[in-house]
Request: fold
Amino acid sequence: MGIRNVVIVGSGCAGHTAALYTARAKLEPLVLEGHEPGGQLSLTTLVENFPGFPEGIQGPELIANMRRQAERFGAEYQLAHVMSADLRTSPFTLTVGKETVQTRSLIIASGASARWLGLPSEHALIGHGVSSCATCDGFFFSGKDIAVIGGGDSAMEEAIFLTRFATKVSLVHRRNEFRASKIMLERAQQHEKIEFIPNTVVEEVLDPSKKEVTGLKLRNLQSGKASNLPVSAMFLGIGHVPNAKIFEGQLDMDQDGYLKTTNNVFTKIPGVYACGDVQDRRYRQAITAAGSGCMAALEVEKYLEDQGIE
Ligand code: NAP
Reply:
């Protein structure tokens, strides 16, 4: 298909914004959508903190709008997952299924995926009481009992945040030691609405047949005893996994696999930029992802211009 000016890997907020800007710059971007088209927003419900929507907007609708906007200016989308990338020489080569795509510049917007427990009942209830985003979905469980899973800072932060809505928050953790920082742990432990359930794992989320969360089937790992915890929602706080594995050995990463960038979006390879959650472990918001997608697109424009490609 010839050498592309710019290929964007990923189709969340960062990818769509990069597509919109590079399309309007007439660079005819190709977006390879990845295995979770639309990214994390497509897994949420009402988004109330994306400026411009005073009544809020559904996550899937917001992401569909972004795509339509980019397509209006000629961005091309391919439902494809990049298997490997060769960034050693320019043009860069991406392997997509049995095909290869060559490009003069690359924007990596492959995001991060929430880590899930991996239970079939959990999977069946995502968006129906199972969530990985307390700030997105906590509001819907006002006056209800909620469970948060995990023992790190994310879980503590989610549990504390959810006390705004919940009658009670049960924090279920598989050990009795916590990765969370002391201050966050203490804040959660001292909160009157938060109950700790340590040494315990979730075996099943009830009840997929009712299409809503009615409780959790738990097992205490020390006593072996099973129990039921009646809750209306389960929030996962067990970490995120950046989708950057295919760039291992070619781009710098931190100890958890997030791509390292300088000046917001520059990787160490000229012409290769990273934006959104794949390089941001701190803010992880739709609006910050969109902002960094814009930055990456502007840098691509400049880079190609410097190469004499208009
Ligand atoms: P994390 O520190 O890696 O903690 C993940 C937690 O989830 C651990 O308690 C872990 O249990 C548990 N877990 C992982 N896989 C599990 C599974 N399959 N089943 C049950 N439990 C599982 O991740 P994080 O809390 O997302 O934090 C990531 C980084 O962001 C950290 O550096 C953290 O300090 C930072 N962060 C900071 C703030 C803040 O300061 N406000 C807020 C959020 C995140 P084990 O301990 O048994 O492995």
